[in-house]
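Handout, section 3.2

Students often ask what a structure token actually looks like in practice. Rather than define it abstractly, here is a full record for Bifunctional chorismate mutase/prephenate dehydratase. The first block is the sequence as you would receive it.
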Amino acid sequence: MDEPGTPPDCSMATDICDIRQQIDDIDNTILELINRRLNLAKRIGELKKDSGNQVVDSTRESEILRRLTALNKGPLNPNVLHHIFIDIIAAARAIQASQRVAYLGPEATFTHLAATSHFGYSVTYVPQPSIREIFSEVEKGACDYGVVPVENSVEGSVRHTLDLFFESELCICAERYQPVSYDLLAQQVGLSAIGTVYAHSQALNQCRAWLNQYLPAASLKECSSSAFAVQQAMQEKAAAAIAGGGAAALFGLEAAASKIEDFSRPPTRFLVIGKERVRPSGKDKTSLMFALAHVPGALAGALTPITDEAINLLKIESRPTRHESWSHFFFIDLEGHLEEESIQRAIGRIRPHTLYLKNLGSYPMIGQGV
Ligand SMILES: O=C(O)C(=O)C[C@]1(C(=O)O)C=C[C@@H](O)C=C1
């Protein structure tokens, strides 16, 4: 690495040398600006501490990301923009206070990737063996936030998440859509050097055609988890591991190939759960759960106020309850924030049609791409 102030190696064409000098100047400015930004965030952190406010402000974060995404004219890819700024914001949060995030482990799961793409790399991640334990870690204050799968998870057990909201006082603070795609991780990028591929059976099954085509001679080793597969690839030079797209950065490995799955699948939705309610961001979602009596028209009655208030019903899902006298829970997502009057009026009118109703939280609505 060049010493600070050392000009770049100028043994090559003067054009390249010239451009590298400009890149160095820009990098110096970026570094200075990041540190200026961090010092400002530090001051906000002190003010928040004095006033007893929480460090993470998801609403402010989504405002920043939305504003920059709209401002970006390229060639910076919107996903890359998101990652860069999530990491800058994460560094700011880390300066303000240390944060602990529980997620469904082990490492290298899609939940882990969803957690890192939401919180960046400057928090302490605490893997948990079950979704119930994620809820309890956050409830007892051992972790500040939890990240749980809620829809289409490739790692199963998603149904538990919705059931656990019934027992828990935690709320939804944010949502995150994580692409379900696989990368081949290795210590170096050349495919020709790879003799063994370690992977969880699910990952192996989803990448068979690619492996047959590009690594027909490699020996395929099934592992109990992607985390174990990654560990093997970290230890063996001629080995690779299959893990969720973007995992390379977590383990200091290279992505020797990306998007190696045979069929693309819709992104999986994850929720960030915590204790504090989130203020409006201007484009929000509100999630409710309720149980209905077994009488004709109960569901229609509960949904009519939503239509009357011209609220966009984004999703409705039902699950059998374990409560004897109730048959189903309904989970609905509405466009809008609980602080909006139309949402409050609708909830006020839905409640009398239900046996039980709980507001799971309002949080910034995000696109499925980033
Ligand atoms: O604006 C704030 O409240 C900050 O603390 C700064 C900042 C940021 O880096 O932009 C950091 C953490 C919060 O979650 C939101 C934003």
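Discussion prompt for tutorial groups: The CA atoms of residues 193 and 247 lie 20 Å apart. How would you have guessed this from the sequence alone?
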